[in-house]
């Protein structure tokens, strides 16, 4: 654990390798590169983004390998899968319970620390709460600073 931020609990690459082995997957150079890329990335990349970053440097990298590797990590509880926008699952190596802020314009995703120990179960009587996922939607500072294209009011 290298992060000092208590709201960030990064799963180590070693733990991810162990999880893949437990899932019956061999640690190939391709899978090792995917694990390293995800473990060191706080941006919540999609499978496509990871594939695009690695395809040039890792020989015979395929999108299917990226997808299957990430899927095995999610099923082993070693990374989170977020569906924040239709058709693009994002992967999250921060396994500390947290919320997310998503920019409407560029899609940037940021971790938001969870507030104090609220009695969440009491809010949904008769339901056993496994997780709470909250999404804050808005504009990141970069997009808020850039003037959006305005329609001409004279037409
Ligand atoms: Zn933005
Ligand atoms: Zn996150």
Q: Outline of this structure?
A:
The chain has helices at 13-22, 29-39, 47-54, 63-75, 120-123, 141-145, and strands spanning 80-85, 88-92, 98-103, 109-113, 135-138. It is of the alpha+beta class and 155 residues long.
Strand content: 15-25%
Low-confidence stretches: none
Largest sheet: 3 strands, mixed
Strand order of the largest sheet: 4-3-5
Average pLDDT across residues?
Answer: 86
Q: List cofactors, ions and other ligands.
A: zinc ion
Helix content: 25-40%
In quaternary terms, these chains amount to single chain
What is the 3D shape?
globular
**Content-based structural category:** alpha+beta
Q: Enumerate how many helices there are, as a single number.
A: 6
Number of strands: 5
Q: How far is the first residue's CA from the last residue's CA?
A: 58 Å
- Element string (H = helix, E = strand): HHHHEEEEHEH
Radius of gyration: 18 Å
Task: Lay out the secondary structure.
Layout lengths: L12 H10 L6 H11 L7 H8 L8 H13 L4 E6 L2 E5 L5 E6 L5 E5 L6 H4 L11 E4 L2 H5 L10
Helix pairs in contact: 2-4, 3-4
Bound molecules: zinc ion (2 copies).
Model description:
The chain is α+β, with helices and mostly antiparallel strands. Helix content is 33%, strand content 17%. The chain contains six helices and five strands. The protein has helices spanning 13-22, 29-39, 47-54, 63-75, 120-123, 141-145; strands at 80-85, 88-92, 98-103, 109-113, 135-138. Strands 4-3-5 form a three-stranded mixed sheet, with no helix packed on it. It has a two-stranded antiparallel sheet with strand order 1-2. A hairpin with a 5-residue loop joins strand 3 and strand 4. Helix 2 (29-39) crosses helix 4 (63-75) and helix 3 packs across helix 4 (63-75). The termini are far apart. The structure holds zinc ion (2 copies).
